[in-house]
């Protein structure tokens, strides 16, 4: 890292030199850590749009150019040539695995897919119509009550076992949540199936008959998971880092990330897109809804459009758009009207001055929901699928933070605008 300087001058003309750090790509950052100590002021950046909260070597995004790279590899190349499990290895360990390393990693993940029967019984405590994200967040948080043998976060071997366990068990937990919501018996994982195929088996097989995994469906899930695996310091990843920065049990930190992901501005958008397309209903209604989205006094937004970082096409959306065609063609074009509506909406919005001026392009969640729907998943499971994929990103970032010698508890400051000191008034006088 090369160091430059940045001069900050206060109202009385006193200036302070702040070091500027350059990364391997992306804008330089001004290191403001000494500003409060030297000048007694805080910096103000709600939503962290101008703040680099940490140094990271995992994922790089250039939002203006629509670039996304995991450990330096463009996501397009990985989507074309790699698999989700190989990308998990890459994100966790920094390099692509050799054949032996990949086989060993895959074996370890397969061997950790079963969940403790006590964890399985936790689902009975939920009502049948509980949202699966609520069940998954609750059950993952409860995992901090298990595995006491391997939660020394300073121990590299313990961290590794945690990483493999959580990546392996998330599909099992997600499928159990789904089975609970539809009142079907839980299906145990199968060690002869790959990651995505095993998930499909646990979701859709029933004990009464044989189930054959559809290869197109398994490939589509693998691709979607690969594209969702990490996205640098997004809301849920930052939540995992912040929760984990206190030294909290890593399963609790991941549960916090799952909760953050659930919101419609983040991972919940895939569910919201489907609800929006259903609400729009037909092509002739699109103009009305585009007008609503542009109206500042109307809270309606085009879900699946816009991104904090991408001010160009989301590269993940471009890849998923192609996959969407393939899945719908090969699975019998179950939801053609919905997909056609989505394409028309995309076309109209991309030509609209409002969306052009604000650089609002379709994001990854605009298409992922349509694929999940074509695979037979209920809308409420879409964000759960995102959570399974993003778990590896959360774990990679949590590990990077815990092993960073400069890591401190995350503790932002504030601009206080509440009442000044005042004296307590007795209740009889209020
Ligand atoms: N429809 C209509 N207007 C929009 C939209 C939209 N989807 N997104 C942003 N805008 C407008 C917004 O009203 C604002 O206008 P103005 O400058 O007049 O106040 C301007 O664009 C900037 O928006 P912002 O809310 O300040 O931008 P942000 O970076 O805080 O929010 C976002 C980013 C993704 C939360 C937002 O674009 C949004 O709510 N999109 C819809 C939800 C969505 O699709 N989320 C998934 C994100 S991708 C998956 C993931 O990473 O989880």
Oligomer: single chain
- What's the number of extended β-strand segments? 6
Strand percentage: 5-15%
The averaged pLDDT comes out at 93
Please give the radius of gyration in angstroms: 23 Å
Fraction of residues in H or I helices? 40-55%
Largest sheet data: 3 strands, antiparallel
C-alpha end-to-end distance: 60 Å
- Category from helices, strands and their pairing: mainly alpha
The coarse silhouette is globular
Q: What is the N-to-C succession of helices and strands?
A: EEEHEEEHHHHHHHHHHHHHHHHH
Tally the helices: what do you get?
18
Could you tell me which ligands this complex binds, including any ions or cofactors?
carboxymethyl coenzyme *A
Strand order of the largest sheet: 1-2-3
The low-pLDDT segments are: none
What would your notes on this structure say?
With 430 residues, this protein is mainly α. Helices cover 50% and strands 6% of the residues. It has a three-stranded antiparallel β-sheet. Strands 4-5-6 form a three-stranded antiparallel β-sheet. A hairpin with a 5-residue loop joins β1 and β2. α4 crosses α7, α7 runs parallel beside α8 and α12 crosses α17. Bound molecules: carboxymethyl coenzyme *A.
Describe, in short, the structure shown.
This protein is mostly helical and 430 residues long.
Name its key features.
three-stranded antiparallel β-sheet, binds carboxymethyl coenzyme *A, 430 residues, single chain, 18 helices
Fold blueprint:
Elements: E1 3-9, E2 15-21, E3 29-30, H1 35-39, E4 59-62, E5 67-70, E6 73-74, H2 75-81, H3 84-93, H4 99-111, H5 117-122, H6 132-142, H7 156-182, H8 195-204, H9 215-228, H10 235-244, H11 250-261, H12 269-280, H13 286-294, H14 315-330, H15 336-351, H16 353-357, H17 364-374, H18 382-402
Antiparallel strand pairs: 1-2, 2-3, 4-5, 5-6
Helix pairs in contact: 3-9, 3-18, 4-7, 6-7, 6-11, 7-8, 7-18, 8-9, 9-14, 9-17, 9-18, 10-11, 10-18, 11-18, 12-17, 14-17
Bound molecules: carboxymethyl coenzyme *A.
């Amino acid at each position: 890292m090369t160091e430059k300087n940045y001069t900050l001058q206060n109202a009385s003309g006193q200036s302070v030199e702040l070091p500027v750090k350059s990364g391997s790509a992306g804008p330089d950052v001004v290191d403001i850590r000494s500003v409060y100590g030297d000048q007694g002021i805080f910096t103000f950046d709600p939503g962290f749009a101008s703040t680099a909260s940490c140094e990271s070597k995992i994922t790089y995004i250039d939002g203006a150019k629509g670039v996304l790279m995991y450990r330096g590899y463009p996501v397009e190349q990985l989507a074309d040539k790699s698999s989700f499990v190989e990308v998990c290895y890459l994100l966790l360990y920094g390099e692509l695995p050799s054949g032996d390393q990949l086989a060993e990693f895959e074996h370890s993940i397969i061997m950790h897919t079963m969940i403790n029967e006590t964890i399985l019984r936790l689902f009975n405590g939920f009502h049948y119509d509980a949202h699966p994200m609520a069940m998954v967040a609750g059950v993952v948080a409860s995992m901090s009550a298990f595995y006491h043998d391997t939660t020394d976060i300073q121990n590299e071997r313990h961290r590794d076992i945690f990483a493999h366990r959580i990546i392996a068990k998330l599909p099992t937990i997600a499928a159990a949540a789904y089975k609970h919501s539809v009142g079907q018996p839980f299906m145990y994982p199968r060690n002869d199936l790959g990651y995505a195929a095993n998930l499909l088996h646990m979701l859709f097989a029933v004990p009464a008959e044989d189930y054959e995994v559809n290869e197109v469906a398994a490939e589509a899930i693998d691709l979607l998971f690969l594209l969702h695996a990490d996205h640098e310091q997004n809301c849920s990843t930052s939540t995992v880092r912040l929760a984990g920065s206190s030294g909290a049990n890593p399963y609790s930190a991941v549960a916090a990330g799952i909760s953050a992901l659930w919101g419609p501005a983040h991972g919940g958008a895939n569910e919201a897109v489907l609800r929006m397309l259903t609400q729009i209903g037909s092509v002739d209604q699109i103009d009305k809804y585009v007008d609503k989205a542009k109206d500042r006094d109307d809270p309606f937004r085009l879900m699946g459009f816009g991104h904090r970082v991408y001010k160009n096409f989301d590269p993940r959306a471009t890849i998923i758009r192609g996959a969407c065609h393939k899945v719908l063609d090969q699975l019998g074009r179950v939801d053609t009207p919905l997909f056609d509506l989505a394409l028309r909406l995309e076309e109209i919005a991309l030509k609209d001055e409002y969306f052009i001026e604000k650089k609002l392009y379709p994001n990854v969640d605009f298409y992922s929901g349509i694929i999940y729907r074509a695979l037979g998943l209920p809308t409420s499971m879409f964000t759960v699928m995102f959570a399974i994929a993003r778990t590896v990103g959360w774990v990679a970032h949590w590990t990077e933070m815990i092993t960073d010698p400069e890591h401190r508890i995350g503790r932002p400051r504030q601009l206080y605008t509440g009442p000044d000191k005042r004296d307590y008034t007795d209740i009889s006088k209020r």
